[in-house]
């Protein structure tokens, strides 16, 4: 099962391990690096020469991705995913809000703000800090699905050029997690206002050593799935917004397709 999971890492992930004394884990990492690891040195990525404006149905075709990075240090796995996407920052900001993470797919079953005020914070980009009840699942194999009930501390911040959520584990209901910290961020690409830079980072340690062996492959696949859903959702929302604006323009008085025009003087 582990070999099958690691095979999914081929050509996509960079592995690095430091300060680990577990020979079994070192063996897994060594084989993974030799057989499935991506080069550690990532090539330069840039949006120079790319279009500043992309049609909504073409957004996902122009996404520029970096290999997912995996680091093991101090018995904690840290996974980082990054991509550049041709969209305005505002189009992606709502997905950074952890209240909306369920839109990213089956990994998140529930993300509910515990201390939510009467004022809604899910809609738009309204910063908030507090606690989040999160339920997420991991598919360890075709037949094994495990659920985790966590309470997270959240800091969701919004600025003109960056929107970011930092989170840290307060506790997991069944003590299955020792660490679950990280952040999700979108920021404007300098000198390219029509592009957004996404970064997601997660540091995790399970109470079970067996689960920690499987963690890098499974968490990587989950985060890659989240990234793909993030891109698809932003593109879908951009398409809906484009249709709305098109409809509004078509209803403006004085246009040839204005249904009221031609009735004047009748």
Write the layout of secondary structure elements.
Blueprint (H helix, E strand, L loop, with lengths): L1 H6 L5 E5 L5 H13 L28 E2 L2 E6 L2 E10 L3 H8 L11 E6 L14 E12 L5 E14 L3 E11 L4 E13 L2 E15 L2 H42 L16
Parallel strand pairs: 1-3
Antiparallel strand pairs: 2-4, 3-4, 4-10, 5-6, 6-7, 7-8, 8-9, 9-10
Structure description:
The chain has 266 residues and is α+β, with helices and mostly antiparallel strands. The protein has a single domain (2-250), classed as Alpha-D-Glucose-1,6-Bisphosphate, Chain A, domain 4 (2-Layer Sandwich), CATH 3.30.530. 26% of the residues lie in helices and 35% in strands. It has four helices and ten strands, in the order αβαβββαββββββα. It has helices spanning 2-7, 23-35, 89-96, 209-250, and strands at residues 13-17, 64-65, 68-73, 76-85, 108-113, 128-139, 145-158, 162-172, 177-189, 192-206. Strands 1, 2, 3, 4, 5, 6, 7, 8, 9 and 10 form a ten-stranded mixed β-sheet that branches. β6 (128-139) and β7 (145-158) form a beta hairpin. The radius of gyration is 22 Å and the shape is globular. Mean pLDDT is 79; it is low at 1-14, 16-21, 34-43 and 259-266.
